[in-house]
């Protein structure tokens, strides 16, 4: 764990992590250093935990933490969501995040928000 504090190791790890997040890249990690390979496997695990195994195919739409947070916010606000273009695996992941937001939903908070949005001339569809 102390290795991550070494700037050279951290840089190589992060390069591998970013490489692993990209589902279209499939490389030979035997020529890479330990930091890069560790980062790659961590990034690939992060990708596959949201989008399914790369070996099962690349979905049309890729889920990221930002997108999942938007689904959770939709649950908090009690809004409906559009799941077109997502795989079954991704829909299960989205469902968990959305339900996490629904658990925090308070219907009484919607009315002040709606008034604020109306005042700012933002239309809710």
Automatic annotation (TrEMBL):
Protein name stated in the entry:
Uncharacterized protein
Question: Which organism is the protein's source?
Answer: Flavobacterium agri
């Amino acid at each position: 764990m102390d290795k991550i504090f070494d700037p050279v190791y951290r840089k190589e790890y992060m390069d591998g992590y970013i490489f692993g997040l990209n589902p279209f890249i499939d490389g030979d990690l035997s020529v890479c250093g330990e930091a890069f390979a560790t980062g790659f496997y961590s990034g690939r695990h992060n990708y596959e935990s949201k989008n399914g195994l790369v070996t099962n195919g690349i979905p049309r739409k890729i889920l990221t933490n930002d997108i999942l947070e938007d689904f959770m916010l939709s649950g908090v606000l009690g809004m409906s969501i559009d799941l077109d273009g997502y795989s079954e695996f991704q829909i299960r992941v989205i469902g968990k995040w959305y339900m996490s937001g629904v658990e925090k939903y308070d219907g009484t908070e919607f009315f002040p928000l709606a008034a604020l949005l109306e005042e700012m001339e933002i239309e809710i569809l």
